[in-house]
Amino acid sequence: MARIDLVDLAHSYGGGTYALKPMTMTWRQGGAYALLGPSGCGKTTLLNIISGIVTPSQGKVLFDGNDITHASTRERNIAQVFQFPVIYDTMTVGENLAFPLKNRGLPREQIKARVGEIAKLLDLTPYLDRKAVRLSADAKQKISLGRGLVRPDVAAVLFDEPLTVIDPHLKWELRSKLKALHQALDLTMIYVTHDQTEALTFADTVVVMHDGAVVQSGTPEDLFARPAHTFVGYFIGSPGMNIVPAEVKGREAVVSGHVIGLNRSYDNLPAGGKIEIGARPEFVHVADPAPGLLSARIERIDDLGRARFARVRIGDVKFAATVPNGFAVPEKTVGLVFDPAHIHVYSDSLLVEGRA
Amino acid sequence: MSITLDKVSRDVAGASWIRDVSLTLERGTLSVLLGPTLSGKTSIMRLLAGLDKPTSGRVLVDGKDVTGFDVRKRSVAMVYQQFINYPTLSVYENIASPLRVQGVARGEIESRVLDAARLLKLEPYLDRTPLQLSGGQQQRTAIARALVKRADLVLLDEPLANLDYKLREELRTELPRIFEESGAIFVYATTEPSEALLLGGRTICMSEGRALQVGETPLVYRRPETIEVAEVFSDPPLNTVGIEKKNGSIFYSGGERASVTGLYEGLSDGAYRVGFRAHQLEVANASSGRHAFVTKVSVTEITGSESFVHLTREGYNWVAVLPGIHEFLPGQELDAVLDPNDLFIFDQSGRLVAAPAAR
Amino acid sequence: MDKTINNKAWFLVLPVFLIVAFSAVLPLMTVVNYSVQDTFGNNHFFWNGVGWFKELLDPSTDLGDRFLNSLGRNLLFSAIILAIEVPLGILVALSMPREGWRVAACLVILALPLLIPWNVVGTIWQIFGRPDIGLLGYTLNKLGFDYNYVSNSFDAWCTIIVMDVWHWTSLVALLCYAGLKSIPDAYYQAAQIDGASRWAVFTAIQLPKMKRVLLIAVLLRFMDSFMIYTEPFVVTGGGPGNSTTFVSIELVKIALGQFDLGKAAALSLVYNLIILIVCWVFYTVMTNADRERPQTTGGA
Lengths: 356, 359, 300
Description:
A: alpha+beta; Rossmann fold; CATH 2.40.50.140; six-stranded mixed sheet; 21 strands; C: mainly alpha; MetI-like fold
């Protein structure tokens, strides 16, 4: 159980470009964190720095205040679950789980008890005597996880896209199991993924990364309702947030010559910056074209069974909007109705706070 | 050109991989092979392509029997789940490779490659090699290479499965447009019902080597002929519950008793299985006209735009979907309601008896 | 996997068929014919039926005695060199660097003994071991050992064994190195996290992952050593006496020395059969090991 501090941490693999840009963060003990971002955003590098596989080129990592930046992986006492299951082929499930404790020289009785406890938590009890290599991928991932949990003083559990090789219809089972485990064990858990569903389900704090930097860190509600960066708006939500260039003055935004009312006042936008407004498709719906509404050209309607989305075009910009239930979509153009409470203004991709 | 599979079966080492499948695919259409892993999607594609021979049955192209013909004789292009490109050739050369094999003239090669690159947004990357590209770009290169051949049949085997979530979304919105522009027969295999719905066309629902239902995608979605089809074509998994209609009431297995309204009215007395998708189960208090259940939350999955609540009730595991972000505590009790006009009723043998009216 | 039929393929194979027929099938049939005859190659044939085969297996006859003794020597030789080369090869593979320029240098050095023609290997060691002009022989004798592979059969065996180890350990090492390289780093990281000792890493991760590669290495080494001819022949000629006369050398003595072609043919057939059986056993073991794949059900 540890509180993790990153102090001015950055990493460059050489050649001047930063794989991880300088950052300072604190992760509280017992928290469930997700590092969310597309491939190449630096999340795996960050995870490897915390686990000790990579030594950062600058900055420090502290566990409970102790500087472990240069400590070996073993010394940090962490557990790591990799993208593919890592198990010892020659051992049974029980022996796999007992391995870390055996290496520490714990007495047999203690090992047996602890293995039984963890096996019960992971629903592995009926398989303890089976050869680990014969089980399915999701059971093997549970064994990998179990080996980490079996040490009672483990500092943090790190997950590197652990559901990659799991069958899709078993993924949700494992996801809910991880969440339940977190609540039962009060461990610091850090989960790296590119899948927003995994991140938002598992974590109480999601750290969104893009291009080596932390773009926003907050609860799922925060990230969904108030994205601090256009990238967060785009990445979270399916479909992602619509971002359109606009001219914003006072309480109005002008998009393609059409005025949209905002519910906050924006007076001091920096001149020369790229001004955009963001609105999630859930808060924009299509209606019959009317003079008071922003008009857009229909490209296609996506029927997902439980909801319909209209893919439209405003000038050059692509836009997605909800189609209300039962609404008959006109052939060519529609009008867009915005909800002023859910429009955000961005300057150079960063959220601007308006005045009420 | 049209391609037909006529009562095709394929056995491998004693196991039956494809059982008695008959299909016809017409020019300019998109067909989605939808089914879980190991349901036979890849086997069907290999039979269509001519990579494998069926153990029984025939493969016909435009009426002609081509069952024994090698794949090189057929006009086929294939895109795989693992982005397969020639690692030492540039993107331009990769896309041009099938044309060079065919002996197409230089000028023609250039124009067709540039066309395909434009369609797949690869123009800035034509000089790079595949290893210098991201996963999405590599897969676009593979798709461009498949399209440039102007083959009569283009097969895509779960092409987006190895891509990041967001990249998958992006490519998925572009694919329908790309398919329409091409005019060949497209066959797209996937395990995800939402991809089938987004791509449209026709859907072939597969399970355990059998083609369960073939038809226009929205139709197969809204009127699954059997409970198996409904299960394949639902994500999250289909919720089910058993009912018995007798003495003028509906008895849900697990205890609730409800009046005979909505789709239940046309049923004769007996036992049935009711299926409903996640969005047909509403988390709300009992209200008139709705059938109410008391359920317990086991876990909530949040995607950002929606939350999927996993509920348990009398041994049944159900999933309901709610818009936005909701966090329910495991063990919390929730009321859930069903609209008797909005569910699927299947008889004991699994065949559809009643479905919601089309909107 | 029944692919679609392509009849053109048969035409491409036809020339190969004819060549193999002439160079292998016909001579093989000749050998089979000879093995059931009594002949000295001068076109006089006396039918012998299974006579030679009965003699081969009967230690009281001259033929049987020579065959069974040389067979025993072959088995002893193979056992010894396997016992030395496999662990040594694994050790070398483990000690090799994983990346950088040193890898290429090591690979080249390891490959060198494998590239030398076998009779040259034999000649090198023959001279190397001579007590008068050979570095090894001279040094050993200077150090007080009474080393002479020509007159002492123990010395002869040692020389041949050391020669074979020098020649072929690299093959085992290279195969094991390939096997080791295919182990993803995550396994080592997990072992570090689990606090495993170096020995535990070896037994729990490296050895199991090398299983398939080791099987191939053992098969190759066993077969090659069982069929060995050139190297010991060049060094000792089968001597002193017949202490290093392996089956292959025995065979040549009978066929080309005594021209007793019937016996030689029978001997070569039995020799061939033994090797085929061993290969088949290995193949079955290997494909069964492959079949040990996880079941799709059976998970939690």
